[in-house]
Amino acid sequence: MKKRLLVLGLAFTMLAATACGTSSDGGNKTSKADKTVTATSNSDKTSETQKDDDKKDDAKESYKSADDITIDDLKNHEETPADDFEYGDGPNGSIVIDGYIGEDPIVVIPNEIDGKKVVDFGKIFTNDKDIVAVKVGDNVEEIADGAFTNCDNLKYVILGKNVKKFNDNNVGGKKLEALELNDGLEELGTGSSTTGVIVMGDIDVKIPESVKKMDFACKKAMIVKAGSYAESYAKENNMDYRVE
Questions:
Q1: What is the pLDDT of residues 121-134, one digit of tens each?
Q2: Of 113, 119, 151, whose CA–CA distance to 136 is shortest?
Q3: Rounded distance between C-alpha atoms, residue 163 and residue 185, angstroms
Q4: Model confidence, pTM
């Protein structure tokens, strides 16, 4: 009887030990499963990052070369995405752009970012050797001194419809093919320095009738309205002009 009890006791002990071992192994398996899930998660993140990089590479390949870009490309271009800019808060709940970090040679300053009006882009293009075309957003009212200075590959600049003041600039370089000033522009080349706006490209420039104050020079002719301030300015400064 004692032997039988002893055998039963040993059997019970072995069963208990086995049960404990199974529980311990099961815990280890759960831990490994957790690690597998984590690894899968990291893999997914890597895959998403790769997809984003591929998209950027595809976008780069879609960019035209400077020689192929036309003014129609600029006019038909979508607003440049907010991610291509560095920006911060401006006055009265607005946005001020502090830098351009995109790679598209065509830039269309957006009217809004995060639901706030973009009112200024400062000198983000000064000395930029890659930018080819810029269209200014409709909420920008003033172009900073030197905004387009030393942009050797700049071909086209189109001002937004609400620009009131275009400060001193050596605009672009020899490759400049078009500078489109907006109706409603009031001051041209009347910034803090004494250089005025000097158009570096060998182009004609149409001066809006709305301009009432200017310090301006271009290598070819100004196109003016009869009786406008721009016509008087051209006559007084012995500048080439033609009446539209």
A1: 999 999 999 999 99
A2: 119
A3: 6
A4: 0.75
Report the side by side order of strands in the sheet with 116-120: 85-89, 95-100, 116-120, 112-113
Percent of the chain with pLDDT over 70: 75
Structure tokens given for 8: 């039963």
**Arithmetic mean of pLDDT, 61-87:** 92
For tokens 């907010």, the residue is: 82
pLDDT tens-digit series, residues 145-178: 999 999 999 999 999 999 999 999 999 999 999 9
Cα–Cα separations (whole angstroms), residue 114 to 93, 160, 162, 225, 235: 11, 20, 20, 40, 47
Q: What is the token pair recorded at 1?
A: 């009887």
